[in-house]
């Protein structure tokens, strides 16, 4: 069955939900009969018509239904194309960043395979939509949480960490890190896997999620039998640091770093993170940097805060590995 505009009755093109539903039924039948190209073109044609009439709710329903259906039929290019259009409608219409719409983003992100380049474009457009809201970070964090969980299920632990670090879901982050270490890490790295993430959360002034992540990891990792206090010095440092940030006492922070200096030398990046933590929680004056924070931490902070490095419209820059 080939769908054409002339085959759709005026009632089916109305703004009423019943009319939209009848259109979707016809398009679904076309897809199920294998008329993928015709269906894709009709979804796009109807999308442009709805947008010209400012029927944003109908456009959202049309695109989400079509993208889901095409992706489920392994028409990944067409499905991703409609997904990208959906994110654009969210932006144009200033649709509410509510659970229902965020779940649409998460579902389509999950359905688009990792190897499809448009997956990153869809995510970037979805984050731009969330950035329009006030305050934007609340909504951006929720999208990152859903995406992080999708990547975790795909065993993409690096990408999952990237996104969960930008969320407020410490329980999921801790559980993901446990799975990541037990499946990919060395026995000697049990403390390293959680240390970097906890320090990064603190650099973002997100002490509550840092704490939840730390305790979720240490309580559930099979190789960590007791604590606090812990057998591993680096875990003790993190435990005491989380307590110290509440006090804001620079002397306590300085002593902690001195006492645990040998453990902190295991990863050169820790010194960079601790410099930032000193500034955020203990009033340490940052060194003069006219062009903003340098190096790795500067890039990380710009990414987290949504500062664009390559494109004025691009949300937190993501590599292919981080997104896929």
List low-confidence stretches: 1-16, 294-324
Number of domains: 2
Distance between the termini: 36 Å
Number of helices: 17
Shape: elongated
- The CATH H-level homologous superfamily of the largest domain: Tetratricopeptide repeat domain
Named CATH architecture of the largest domain: Alpha Horseshoe
Average pLDDT over all residues: 86
Task: Please characterize this protein's 3D structure.
Its main location: cytoplasm. The chain is mainly alpha-helical. The protein has two domains: 1-133, Serine Threonine Protein Phosphatase 5, Tetratricopeptide repeat, CATH 1.25.40.10; 156-324, Alpha Horseshoe (Serine Threonine Protein Phosphatase 5, Tetratricopeptide repeat), CATH 1.25.40.10. The protein is built from 17 helices and no strands. It has helices at 17-32, 36-52, 56-72, 76-93, 99-111, 118-131, 136-153, 157-164, 170-184, 192-203, 207-220, 233-247, 250-259, 261-264, 269-282, 295-305, 320-323. The two termini are 36 Å apart.
